[in-house]
Amino acid sequence: MEVLEKKYPVDAKEYKLYEEVGEGVSATVYRALCIPFNEVVAIKVLDLERCNNDLDGIRREVHTMSLIDHPNVLRAHCSFTAGHSLWVVMPYMAGGSCLHIMKSTYPEGFEEPIIATLLRETLKALVYLHAHGHIHRDVKAGNILLDSNGTVKVADFGVSACMFDTGDRQRTRNTFVGTPCWMAPEVMQQLHGYDFKADIWSFGITALELAHGHAPFSKYPPMKVLLMTLQNAPPGLDYERDKRFSKSFKELVAACLVKDPKKRPTSEKLFKHPFFKHAKSSDFVARSILDGLPPLGERFQMLKAKEADLLVQNKDLYGDKDQLSQQEYIRGISAWNFNLEDLKNQAALIQDDDNNLIEENPNLGLKDRLDEQSVHTDKPSSEGTIHSNTSDSHEDGFDDLDSLEGSLASFPIQPLQALKGYFDIGEDDMKSIRYKNASLTDAEINFSKTENEQVGRTNGDNLVRSSSLPQFVNAGQKKALSGPLLYENYPEFDMSGYIRSFWKECNWDNMQPRHPADRNYSGPISYRQRRDTNNNTLVEDSSEGAVVKRKGRFQVTSADVSQKGQICLSSGSTAGLMPPYLSASTILPTLQYVLQQNNLQRDELIKLIKHVELGNICESADATSNGISQLGVAWHWSGKSVDCYSDTFLAHGCRMSTQHDARHEPLGTTPGKCRLGDRKSV
Ligand SMILES: Nc1ncnc2c1ncn2[C@@H]1O[C@H](COP(=O)(O)OP(=O)(O)OP(=O)(O)O)[C@@H](O)[C@H]1O
Predict the structure, then answer these.
(1) Chain mean position to CA 320
(2) From the CA of 21, how far away is ligand 1's center (Å)?
(3) 74, 257, 264, 461: which one has the fewest Cβ atoms less than 10 Å from its Cβ?
(4) What is the mean pLDDT of residues 246-253?
(5) What is the pTM assigned to this prediction?
(6) For residues 227 and 207, what is the distance between their CA atoms, to the nearest angstrom?
(7) Among the atoms of ligand 1, which is closest to the Cα of residue 94?
């Protein structure tokens, strides 16, 4: 006999709204009573006027929510409009989201059996969604809801997509949605679209979120999250504090967080991972983490009050202008707003965050701190080497940002299309550039427009290169070379290595130049870590030569050390390493932005170097030099070369050798050339 489906009323009068239990970017969620059924439900109220006319998106969410039928996917009972709002009626999940539970009671994250259970149930939902052609696109703890019995349901299809929804059944997407911290690199890049593997990345990030209480990089503003996700090694359970987690958990995370989506397992395959043997029943979840919690509405109010307090504190620190930006990023934003003011605000927040990173973890040992820093100090910074402005007003740290104004003003609405110009480069594409004797001028840049256009085609991009590049990339070649690049004042500093290190870090696994053998990097440091999804071990990047020195996430390869630092922009052989449109003037704004971000990290490294010099770190006899070498690596890598030379290496009288055995050798430069503090006059 056919079971008649319960028909929920589609009239607001039939519901009684109780307290607020959740808030998203576009909606408020209430506990409510469905009067005719005397049943408690949740109603998500979307203000249609606040939804930027994204009615299609809303329609899609409601449609998806009504079609799905799986115990781990939150299904909408019904939906209807009421005035300017859309009401979506759904089962009430009294436990709230995993994010809320962590924020209120488990700020350090959950125990492993809980994580395994939550993840297994979430994965069941993903297996179902993927099998039915849906990509969720916003998997995160905030969208994993629990009912009072500990049953997990994945919610929020606001950004979900159907892989079969285009006429040609194209299986990839080309739109930019999701929440930055959880967003897969390929979603950020929008190079070749993406598919359901993007959910697997987000699932891996969610695993880390459940383990730590927050997602990696969650303290950073979106632009930095984006750069870190693209440039850093994938995050993992690698720190001292992660010792408590099992090998299988670490392997699961590593399997999901592979930058190349092709190497990530499908949800179905992942479901067979041994980690899920640790999973328990939903009852266990209810007993372990829900028992004794105040009602959801109360918790929500408490959290709101806490956030309001934080905002007040931050308002004192940053002023009114930053409030919106703060608010967005404290909550873990889902929306992107890339106007210049926001970028400035976000960049201005970074230093404080970097401080917090240390302050928040007073129990971290030196190694942890160094590791934390090493993860975040991922790219070279240009201070002391590239300068746009020699005026005295540098102290406030905003000059560089101001100088970005012209460039960032032309940032397109989808910023990654702009950054794409920096990331999507093959070695062949770089052949047309010519530099002479390290003096970079417009006349010496032979920029071939035809070749550049060709690049877009040969790379099979979804977007036409010329239109996807920000205006400043081309315009900058005409304007920005009027002085800032005075690196010839610093013959010790390998400008090309610097730019290429930066460049190299912008490339990742599947974006290597097409002829790796031709690569001729002289940048001394490589910071890369590949995870092989099959055996989950770290794999050396053989294209760069054997690893001759490694500590933590840093490694020095023979290819790195076989080349002496040299000013190479003049060299024909290295010319091919620069993309045709990546002149110094075009990357300058980005470098300046990066520079702004890395100031404190540099200071921290200098402090650590001093710490090591003072013998405050006890390692084996040989380890002191290793430590210095490693810090030298971090130093060079962070690109603060001039300062660090003067502060530490001149004092020490040695620098990281470029010989194969990575010994130290005399610095060969005079202290007068680069004193600490010289950077401002560079
Ligand atoms: N059915 C439900 N029962 C209980 N709480 C819910 C329910 N649905 C949502 N919530 C709560 O409301 C919050 C916001 O809901 P939702 O994520 O759907 O809104 P959103 O605008 O799409 O948010 P975002 O885009 O930030 O993810 C959730 O994080 C959750 O805490």
Answers:
(1) 27
(2) 8
(3) 461
(4) 96
(5) 0.52
(6) 21
(7) 4
Quote the ligand 1 centre to 143 CA distance (angstroms): 7
- Give per-residue pLDDT as tens, 294-339: 999 999 999 889 888 877 776 666 555 444 444 443 343 333 333 3
Q: Which residues contact 564 (CB under 8 A, 6 or more apart)?
A: 522, 658
CA 29–ligand 1 middle distance (angstroms): 6
CA angle, 278 as apex, 276 and 280 as ends, to 5°? 95
Alpha carbons 346 and 351: distance in angstroms, whole number: 10
| 304 compared with 462, residue with greater pLDDT | 304
Cα gap 667→606, rounded to integer Å: 18
Q: Tokens 């949605």 sit at which residue? A: 177
Q: Which of 580, 543, 540 is nearest to 427 (CA)?
A: 580
**DSSP tag of 624:** H
Average pLDDT over residues 410-429: 31
* Cα 50 to ligand 1 centroid, rounded to whole Å: 16
Inter-residue contact 402 to 340 (CB < 8 Å):
no
Q: Which ligand 1 atom lies nearest to the CA of residue 97?
A: 31
DSSP state of 151: -
Residue 645, both tokens: 């030379």
- The label of the residue with tokens 């890598």 reads 637
**449 annotated as belonging to a binding site for a ligand:** no
Residue nearest to atom 4 of ligand 1 (CA): 93
Q: Which atom of ligand 1 is nearest to the CA of 300?
A: 31
Q: Using an 8 Å Cβ cutoff, are 379 and 639 in contact?
A: yes
Q: pLDDT tens digits for 271-281?
A: 999 999 989 99
pLDDT, tens digit, 9 for 90 and up, residues 175-186: 444 567 888 888
Which residue's alpha carbon is nearest to atom 26 within ligand 1?
24
Report residue 579 as tokens. 């993309």
Among protein residues, the one with the nearest Cα to ligand 1's atom 10 is: 22
Contact of 184 with 205, CB cutoff 8 Å: no
How many CB atoms neighbour CB 53 within 10 A? 9
CB neighbour class for 649 (10 Å; exposed up to 12, middle 13-18, buried from 19): buried
Distance (Å, rounded) from C-alpha 673 to C-alpha 670? Answer: 6
What confidence score (pLDDT) does residue 207 get?
Answer: 97
ipTM of this model? 0.97
User: What pLDDT is stored for residue 421 in this prediction?
Assistant: 30
Residues with active-site annotation: 138
Q: Which residues line ligand 1 (CB under 6 A)?
A: 21-27, 29, 42, 44, 74, 90-93, 96-97, 100, 138, 142-143, 145, 155-156, 158, 334
Q: Which two tokens stand for residue 592?
A: 């300046």
